[in-house]
Specification:
alpha+beta; 27 helices; seven-stranded mixed beta sheet; binds ligand ANZ; binds zinc ion
Length: 827
């Protein structure tokens, strides 16, 4: 052994192999005594080798299961790959290889890097979502959704990426651009598959109450906004002349008397019918064609000029029988509410801008409370809508009512007349899951001319991806359609000629249930319900904030459906969620094209895995972004060498250099216990960086004791053991080696997490002087943190102070925490 130097490049591969051989990190299915703990990391997409984001996520994600294992839990910490997806096809097109080849090569590379990093995975459960053994069950689950009407097909305007030539879910459109390639997204009318997540909107919202405090507020808020629940009313207007009813959704039924016009989305079927044959038909058609080319984001942008056309007809307002003109306008969307609105320009900003532009009436029906406005609102002088609260005016029988009361009353009165009712509206849309791409899970449906849509029978699953596709270029239809052997098939129901569905599923379907399969690779089922019940829900999930909406919402939805199918006993998959920040370089995202890419493999080559892990975790709070430009693997590497020398020194055993007995060092003992307490608390709260700081302090304390000949051999050895045990979840290799140096025969990672003596962790006491009228009467030993009120009370409770007071009245008490209390008597 090299006493002076630790050699990670020799030690790390040795232990990585030994751990695997011993099955050190396998979850124990037979053990029913120990409490179970499921620690899950978001599984990686195999786009190449692991990147710095992975290093951070998995280093942090590995601390938790290692800590829990040492605390005595039976831990499940699995890994797999989210291995379907577009980049594999794009790489295949570029390099002329098969997507499968590229994908599985990358998986091998990442697996090797994970092993070098020594992440405590249970490798026996690893799988890839592109394995037929996995996607068979994705298809099986899809069929269960389909049978319940939760998977369906409909023609709809979809987000189309002209570059990737595929449909995108709303969640994959970022400010009107494709999430992957940044191309401007277009709208196209296509027949697509959807999963009916909207059926679960309310439950997805309600169940968030149980996640409060265990998921970040930021993620919960993002989900809440994405689901976007609004309450209000649906109100029916009547088309003048035809008597046809047309429904609007409004959050403000109290403003019905202020509706001065009516707006249909240009795509609303009624718009087409109302305008047909009239003088406005041509203008309307030209307008609609223009609008259809715009994205939803453009149409909703607050600052943009709103545009519309009059349709030449009127509708009747149900509250007052007034006739108001009907327009079509771009700011009303077909996909939201009913696709029709009553426009109240005095109280809705979009309507206000539209009314001013086209010279439509603005009528005030809510007056703000007097203390809010100096003069009553008058429409001619308004420069913007008044969206706030107040009391109703110009509203017939409802005049004088406050807004909230008016909403209730007007809604109830409409309902009694059958012209409206209270309604809830969600922003959440159904999840578009079909993709016209090759490298995904085939949708297990056969189209038959006589039977329609027929599900592939369970015993014929998986519907395998055909191997004879050679052209992966996107053309708007799935490349699967080019495989004749794939497409034509006998209808499973009638035996007649059928055509296989050629779309594949969004990869977010694959990742919506993978955490269930980790509980056991069941050959007969997607998962074993008993094992799922034993391990799940996941105790701690770790992953990037970029999945705050998509993956986390979809997984929650899947689990709720599976719960309703009687397959899982819980309704939320992830009890607690931890999101790491991003790793950037000089403030910018790392990327090959920017030339600022640092790769974990290179850091491991140079410094070893422990230093790679410690460096990224020491860089700052786990949830904050890390700027790699600000961190120093060298500094961390030097510390690891100091840890090595200190522990080896303490293990040396003899008291003092000359073998003579060294004096006890209560300060070293206290430091060791204080560190034990502090690191445990930090790790439980994912404060990896401050835990590392505390361990550095302990290293210094131990080094000083050795250098200055302080502390008995036993004290030093105990401090060294604690240092090794506490560091083990963060730096598994050097601690394993040192644990053996300390004379242990079994792995440090199976050792018990150290306890501490609370007495020894207590902070130093300080003396607080108690005076009466400036004369010292008593002294107390107090915690330096003691507050003013406690000190005042303690001083007045002192017998010596009371004696000195001798019954005189106290005028005031001057407290200077924690050192002084002066009781001043009335003169
Ligand atoms: C009349 C009104 C008066 C409205 C008022 C607001 C204020 P949220 O909160 O987002 O749910 N709206 C309804 N459907 C729409 C659509 N398809 N496209 C564009 N706008 C639509 O917004 C609901 C409000 O947005 C509804 O309430 C409606 O305008 C508008 F003082 O009705 B309101
Ligand atoms: Zn048939």
């Amino acid at each position: 052994m090299d006493v002076e130097r630790y050699h990670p490049q020799q030690v790390e591969p040795k232990w990585a192999a030994a751990w695997e051989e011993q099955g050190l990190y396998l979850a124990d299915e037979s053990d029913t005594d120990r409490q179970r703990y499921y620690a899950l990391d978001m599984f990686p997409y195999p786009s190449g080798d692991l990147h710095m984001g992975h290093l951070e996520a998995f280093s942090g994600g590995d601390v938790i299961p290692r800590l829990k294992r040492m605390q005595g839990y039976n831990v499940l910490h699995p890994i797999g790959w989210d291995s379907f997806g577009l980049p594999a096809e794009n790489a295949a097109i570029k390099r002329g290889t098969h997507p499968k080849t590229w994908t599985y090569q990358n998986i091998d590379t990442q697996r090797a890097t994970f092993r070098r990093l020594g992440i405590s995975f249970d490798w026996s459960r690893a799988f890839n979502t592109s394995d037929p053994d996995y996607y068979r069950w994705t298809q099986w689950l899809f069929l269960r959704f389909w049978e319940r009407g939760l998977a369906y097909r409909k023609a709809s305007p979809v987000n189309w990426c002209p570059n990737d030539q595929t449909v995108l879910a709303n969640e994959q459109v970022i400010n009107g651009h494709c999430e992957r390639c940044d191309a401007l997204v277009e709208k196209r009318e296509l027949t697509q598959w959807f999963l009916k997540i909207t059926d679960y909107a309310q439950r997805l919202l309600d169940d968030m109450a149980g996640l409060e405090g265990r998921w970040s507020d930021k993620v919960l808020t993002m989900q809440r906004n994405w689901i976007g629940r609004s309450t209000g009313a649906e109100v029916d207007f009547t088309v003048e002349g035809t008597g046809e009813r047309v429904r609007v959704f409004t959050t403000r039924p109290d403003t019905l008397f202020g509706a001065t016009f009516f707006v249909l989305a240009p795509e609303h079927p009624l718009a087409e019918r109302l305008v047909a044959g009239g003088p406005h038909e041509e203008a309307f058609r030209a307008f609609r064609a223009r609008v259809e080319r715009e994205t939803e984001v453009e149409r909703l942008a607050a600052e943009r000029d709103k545009e519309g056309v009059f349709l030449g007809v009127h509708v009747i307002n149900p509250v007052n029988g007034e006739r108001i003109p009907v327009w079509a306008a771009d700011y009303v969307l077909t996909e939201y509410g009913t696709g029709a609105i009553m426009a109240v320009p005095a109280h809705d900003q979009r309507d206000f801008e539209f009314a001013r532009k086209y010279g439509l009436e603005v009528r005030v029906v809510i007056q703000p409370a007097e203390e809010e406005a100096a003069v009553p609102l008058e429409s001619e002088f308004m420069t913007e809508a008044m969206a706030g609260a107040g009391r109703l005016v110009n509203s017939g029988p409802y005049d004088g009512l406050p807004v909230d009361e008016a909403i209730t009353r007007i809604t109830a009165d409409l309902e009694a007349r059958g012209l409206g009712k209270a309604a809830v509206n969600f922003r959440l849309r159904d999840w578009l899951v079909s993709r016209q791409r090759y490298w995904g899970c085939p949708i297990p449906i056969v189209h038959c001319e006589s039977c329609g849509e027929v599900g592939v029978p369970d015993d014929q699953l998986p519907v395998l991806l055909p191997d004879d596709v050679t052209d992966f270029k996107p053309k708007g239809v799935s490349p699967l359609a080019t495989s004749p052997g794939f497409v034509s098939v006998a209808c499973p129901r009638c035996g007649g000629p059928g055509r296989r569905e050629t779309d594949t599923m969004d990869t977010f379907v694959d990742s919506s249930w993978y955490f269930l399969r980790y509980t056991g690779l069941d050959p007969e089922r997607p998962f074993d319900p008993e094992r799922v019940a034993a391990w799940m829900p996941v105790d701690q999930y770790t992953g990037g904030i970029e999945h705050a909406i998509l993956h986390l919402l979809y997984s929650r939805f899947f689990v709720k459906v599976l719960h309703d199918l009687g397959m899982v006993p819980f309704t939320e998959p992830f009890t607690a969620m931890l999101n790491q920040g991003m790793v950037v370089m000089h403030g910018a995202a790392m990327s090959k094209s920017r030339g600022n890419l640092v790769e974990p493999s290179a850091i491991i080559d140079q410094y070893g895995a422990d230093v790679a892990r410690l460096t990224i975790l020491f860089a700052g709070p786990f949830e904050d972004d890390v700027d790699w430009a600000d961190v120093s693997p060298e500094g961390v590497a030097r510390w690891v060498q100091r840890v090595w020398r200190a522990v080896v020194g303490a293990a040396g055993g003899a008291d003092g250099a000359d073998g003579a007995e060294t004096p006890a060092d209560p300060e070293l003992v206290r430091l060791a216990h204080r560190t034990t307490k502090g690191v445990a608390e930090d790790l439980e709260r994912f404060r990896f960086n401050t835990a590392i700081s505390k361990l550095m302090v302990l290293t210094n304390g131990l080094t000083d004791a050795l250098r200055l000949g302080r502390g008995s051999a036993a004290e030093r050895r105990d401090a060294a053991s604690r240092l090794v045990l506490l560091l083990a979840p963060l730096a598994p290799f050097v601690t394993e080696e040192l644990w053996r140096v300390l004379g242990n025969a079994t792995s440090v990672h199976l050792a018990r997490w150290p306890a501490y003596d609370p007495e020894l962790t207590r902070a130093e006491r300080v003396t607080c002087v108690l005076q009466v009228d400036g004369k010292v009467r008593d002294r107390l030993q107090v915690d330096p943190e003691t507050g003013e009120d406690d000190l005042r009370a303690a001083a007045l409770a002192s017998a010596k102070v009371q004696t000195a007071l001798g019954g005189r009245a106290v005028a005031r008490v001057v407290v200077v925490p924690p050192k002084l209390v002066n009781v001043v008597t009335a003169k």
